[in-house]
């Protein structure tokens, strides 16, 4: 027989061994299978006067024992050996023998520790943690079952088992995972683990049957209730709709099945109150109806699923938990944390086979939010959505059952057949812009050809169009800024436009003087440049100040740093949304902060900056003037 060394040890009962006399070595012949486990005990002293509490034993551990009959006796602490069936020992490799016998004070405690370790490893295995070769008292680095080590397959899960084998703690050190937890060998059978700060308990799902839930066929009253909603008895039978009696009340039972087996059950009473069987797996209602289907319809409620069946659509399922109040603005969480929509992941094998998924959720805000959440998870590119028809001038029908009841099965079929592509951000067709095209054709905006400048000689060459960019340049001291100020005054007078001024060269008081003089058409001071024209009066000044305050908004950087183009556009966006601004002046371009990466050329930087400005102008229907001052012209 050969003793095989292995990291994992199995154990046999000590009940019989401990009853043997302490004055004898444990000896005998055994016929053992390879998978047997055996502990060999031998007292250190044969003195019969020794008390049982002071007895000391050698403990020999073996994981696998081959067939054979052999004498059992204390082993030498010397060379490693193997025993042949004839009892003659021979030398063998250290890799194939157990550790030398250890001097044990209490072999029963050691056996208990080893048994505890086995139980602990079994619990870890239930959590998909592979701890088979982990050694107690050491930190082991394993593949995390939650994140699978990411794209690189990194062994980032740190697992530590206590020296007595009774407890384990673990944590995944990948930043995107962070799964951590602990478990005990002898606890209440549950292991606690934490994902991203949320404590959850891993529980086995209940196994339920129609008999265990005491479900019954529908009574005539409930069949009549569904008939009022135009749902036939045949449809109810095909979809296994049943009932349950409790507390002298009958509730409708919607049975959730997968491959014919009952997985969960959802109830509805006469007051439209819903509840589900606890601790059951979340799946779609009607899941077997979409097995292998290329087109799938998803609705928001079980009765809508039954309504689709009345219209001839059996490839339809209903979500189990209803709709959220609004769509989340955050990224889709990892699968193990996506508890609200776990049914989608539990049914992913069914959904992955579909080439088209029609979202027929309710027409209200929560229903549209549900459609958005489903599309985010299954892929917008293969999603369609129904558009419920109008009920009257102000309202639309809410769901499939309403359309069935008011318009009939043919109308419901037409609604599904005319489902539209689910919108994908950034991808459009011209149909999305038909209203805008019609408005442009009929000149409903009033400024389709732009707003006149106020100078007849210039109007044939240039008009100010919302959403466009104008770059103003010219030789130094040619009056570029003065012309822009005059243009703004004309646009305000003719069309009531408001503006954001980002004018870094002008002091506020000096810029105010120039604008007031153009508005009131009188000089601010009694000075030579005013000629014989009288200076503006105090009343005119007060009226002019109010006009300045109502028409212009200043974007000024109060500290010593130069403003960046992003800073200017952010302020302009706020002014558009808050004050209805129609124009932005950046004067001059040279005064902006133009720091750029060393790898980027000036041409690339200017192109990128102008693209940002044009996108801002188009998105907010705001005209932007960029004043570019060239270098001094040499004489």
From TrEMBL:
PROSITE patterns: SF4_HELICASE, TOPRIM. One of its GO terms (biological process) is DNA replication. InterPro entries: DNA_helicase_DnaB-like_C, P-loop_NTPase, TOPRIM_DnaG/twinkle, TOPRIM_dom, Twinkle-like. Coiled coil: none annotated. Residues 444-635 form the SF4 helicase domain. Residues 294-412 form the Toprim domain. One of its GO terms (molecular function) is ATP binding. This is Twinkle homolog protein, chloroplastic/mitochondrial isoform X2. The gene is LOC111434017.
């Amino acid at each position: 027989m050969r003793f095989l060394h292995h990291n994992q040890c199995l154990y046999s009962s000590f009940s019989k061994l401990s009853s043997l006399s302490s004055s004898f070595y444990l000896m005998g012949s055994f016929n053992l299978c390879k998978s047997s486990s055996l502990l060999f005990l031998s007292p250190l002293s044969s003195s019969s006067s020794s008390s049982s509490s002071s007895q000391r034993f050698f403990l020999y551990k073996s994981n696998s024992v081959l067939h054979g009959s052999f004498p059992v006796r204390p082993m030498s602490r010397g060379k490693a050996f193997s025993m042949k069936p004839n009892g003659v020992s021979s030398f063998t490799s250290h890799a194939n023998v157990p550790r030398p016998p250890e001097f044990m004070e209490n072999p029963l405690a050691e056996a208990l520790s080893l048994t505890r370790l086995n139980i602990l490893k079994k619990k870890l295995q239930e959590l998909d943690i592979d701890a088979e070769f982990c050694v107690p008292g050491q930190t082991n680095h394993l593949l995390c079952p939650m994140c699978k080590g990411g794209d690189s397959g990194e062994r980032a899960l740190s697992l530590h088992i206590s020296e007595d084998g009774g407890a384990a703690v673990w944590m995944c050190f990948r930043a995107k995972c962070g799964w951590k937890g602990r478990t005990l060998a002898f606890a209440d059978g549950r292991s606690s683990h934490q994902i991203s700060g949320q404590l959850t308990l891993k529980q086995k799902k209940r196994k339920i049957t129609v008999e265990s839930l005491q479900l019954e066929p529908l009574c005539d009253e409930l069949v009549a209730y569904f008939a009022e909603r135009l749902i036939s008895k045949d449809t109810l039978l095909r979809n296994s709709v049943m009932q349950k009696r409790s507390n002298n009340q009958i509730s409708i039972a919607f049975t959730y099945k997968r491959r014919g087996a009952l997985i969960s059950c959802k109830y509805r009473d006469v007051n439209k109150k819903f509840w589900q069987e606890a601790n059951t797996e979340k799946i779609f209602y009607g899941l077997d109806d979409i097995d292998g289907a290329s087109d799938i319809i998803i609705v928001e409620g079980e009765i809508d699923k039954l309504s689709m069946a009345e219209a001839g659509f059996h490839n339809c399922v209903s979500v189990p938990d209803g709709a959220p109040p609004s769509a989340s603005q955050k990224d889709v969480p990892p699968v193990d944390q996506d508890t609200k929509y776990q049914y989608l992941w539990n049914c992913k094998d069914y959904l992955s086979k579909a080439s088209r998924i029609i979202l027929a959720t309710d027409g209200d805000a929560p229903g549209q939010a549900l459609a958005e959440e489903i599309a985010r998870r299954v892929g917008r590119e293969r999603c369609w959505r129904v558009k419920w028809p109008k009920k009257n001038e102000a309202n639309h029908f809410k769901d499939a059952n309403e359309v069935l009841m008011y318009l009939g099965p043919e109308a419901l079929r037409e609604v599904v057949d005319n489902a539209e592509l689910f919108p994908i951000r950034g991808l459009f067709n011209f149909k999305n812009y038909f209203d805008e095209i019609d408005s442009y054709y009929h000149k409903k905006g009033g400024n389709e050809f732009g707003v006149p400048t106020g100078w007849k000689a210039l109007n044939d060459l240039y008009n100010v169009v919302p959403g466009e960019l104008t770059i103003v340049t010219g030789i130094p001291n040619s009056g570029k800024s003065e012309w822009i100020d005059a243009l703004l005054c004309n646009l305000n007078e003719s069309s009531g436009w408001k503006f954001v001024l980002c004018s870094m060269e002008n002091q506020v008081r000096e810029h105010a003087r120039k604008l007031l003089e153009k508005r009131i058409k009188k000089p601010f001071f009694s000075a030579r440049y005013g000629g014989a024209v009288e200076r503006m009066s105090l009343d005119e000044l007060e009226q002019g100040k109010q006009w300045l305050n109502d028409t212009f908004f200043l974007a000024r950087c109060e500290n010593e740093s130069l403003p960046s183009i992003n800073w200017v556009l952010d302020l302009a966006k706020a002014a558009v949304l808050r004050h209805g601004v129609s124009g932005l002046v950046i004067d001059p371009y040279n005064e902006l902060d133009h720091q750029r990466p060393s790898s980027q050329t000036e041409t690339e930087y200017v192109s990128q900056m102008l693209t940002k400005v044009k996108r801002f102008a188009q998105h907010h229907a705001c005209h932007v003037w960029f004043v570019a001052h060239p270098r001094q012209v040499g004489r």
